[in-house]
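Worked Example 4.2. Consider the chain below.
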Amino acid sequence: MATWPTLHVSQHPAVRHKLGILRDVETEPKKFREVVRELSWLLGYEALADARTRPVDVPTPLEVMAGEELADRIGFVPILRAGLGMVDAFLELMPTAQVWHLGLFRDEKTLRPVEYYNKLPNSAAVDLCLILDPMLATGGSATAAIEVLKRWGAARIQLVNLIAAPEGVEAVTKAHPDVEIYTASLDRQLNEKGYIMPGLGDAGDRQFGTGGAG
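Applying the procedure from the previous section yields the following structure tokens:
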């Protein structure tokens, strides 16, 4: 198995436990959404560990002390539609973050992404952008989203996925070696349809009850 210096796979026991629930074909949409949110919070905690702070004086009931406050302006970019389920957890961690949406769908014949929705403002207004997408499969959508954000002017970009395939990690790190990837699991491979194996099926369908698990 190849190794990628920008890939961070969570080893937290709670992450591994919740990931098992998420994968289970018997997990219904309501529970699936809840676990997506819980896993997103845990991954967000890890992904945002290197956010920059600045010193600030904090008056406690007894004296003034040297404290810290967040210095980075942070933006979350969920990839429609499956990434929407990750947003609330990240906003719990960083309530002042800005949220923008990118719409990318995968052409089932070419497996390439097609952009259909972009609500980014005219110029970058944040220091750190986190792309939120449950699945990193071929890497096409992630690579395209990173390219969009770089053209927009984003300087620091991180990718947060619940599950990643080696093919997707390879594609992203080859195209964008400066982007850190945070995931709950690095799975075995893609199948002939571009689905992650063993994976969990279609994350969008399973969140919103619009299809089966396959």
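Residues 29-47 form the longest helix (19 residues). The two ends are 26 Å apart (CA to CA). Compare this with Example 4.1 before moving on.
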